[in-house]
Amino acid sequence: EVQVVESGGGLVKPGGSLGLSCAASGFTFSSYSMNWVRQAPGEGLEWVSSISSSSSYIYYADSVKGRFTISRDNAKNSLYLQMNSLRAEDTAVYYCARGTNGKFDYWGQGTLVTVSS
Amino acid sequence: DVVMTQSPLSLSVTPGQPASISCKSSQSLLHSDGKTYLYWYLQKPGQSPQLLIYEVFSRFSGVPDRFSGSGSGTDFTLKISRVEAEDVGVYYCMQATHLPRTFGQGTKLEIK
Predict the structure, then answer these.
(1) How far is CA A46 from CA A36, A65, B65, B66, B94, in A?
(2) Ordered per-residue pLDDT tens for chain A, 117 residues
(3) A80 in B contact zone (CB under 8 Å)
(4) pLDDT of residue A75
(5) Would strands B107-111 and B10-13 be described as parallel, antiparallel, or unpaired?
(6) Looking at CA atoms only, how far is residue B106 from chain A in angstroms?
(7) In chain B, what residues touch A45 (CB-CB under 8 Å)?
(8) FRET pair for B34, CA 20 to 30 Å: which of A14, A115, B62, B110?
(9) B contacts of A44 (beta carbons < 8 Å)
(10) Is residue B55 exposed (0-12), middle (13-18) or buried (19+ Cβ within 10 Å)?
(11) Which chain A residues are closer than 8 Å to B105 by Cβ?
């Protein structure tokens, strides 16, 4: 069974940093691109970042470019999102999603990041 | 960025009746490879989004055949032939033809 499980969310002050992880299982992690999508409280979905299977291609939304860094460790079947210089508007549930030919086919349950003083 | 505009933003449907959601993009979603990377997701209350339809009209594994997708270019539609109680939630279209990936605002489906 394909599973992706996010962790690392929490409360952080504006300007602070936080690292998210996504543990994958049930599929050959190294063969798939991976993605982060976020959802602010009561709002819609916003794509954050994507990374190809071998980390050759990395993309970011303009809203996080220069502050967030996506990475992966194929040996550990894990995806990461390092978030720096956090702002109140980064408050959201962050979802990890597997990518297959463009589609986000399996999503985790999400991890909540709250940026507040 | 490609703007995805959904309508209606909410709809209330009697079980057994059909429902239709429109999604219009500000640019053509036809990729140079000949494919159209338009997807539909459903986020049920308290859950993470789940993939329903990919590349306009292909149903994802396990998705009931009462769900169907159609369209081309900039105009797309998700149809539910007979709404069931379990179909409640927010429906999102998403495009992956262009960067950044963008979602529609969401359409909330309620049962009458």
Answers:
(1) 9, 14, 28, 27, 10
(2) 999 999 999 999 999 999 999 999 999 999 999 999 999 999 999 999 999 999 999 999 999 999 999 999 999 999 999 999 999 999 999 999 999 988 999 999 999 999 999
(3) no
(4) 97
(5) parallel
(6) 6
(7) 41, 43, 49, 92, 94, 103, 106
(8) B62
(9) 90, 92, 103-106
(10) middle
(11) 44
A35-55 burial by CB neighbour count: b if 16+ within 10 A, else e?
bbbbbeeeeebbbbbbbebee
Q: How much of chain B exceeds pLDDT 90, in percent?
A: 100
Please give the structure tokens belonging to residue A65: 């470019």
Q: Does A74 touch chain B (CB under 8 A)?
A: no
Measure the CA–CA gap between A106 and A99, rounded to whole angstroms: 8
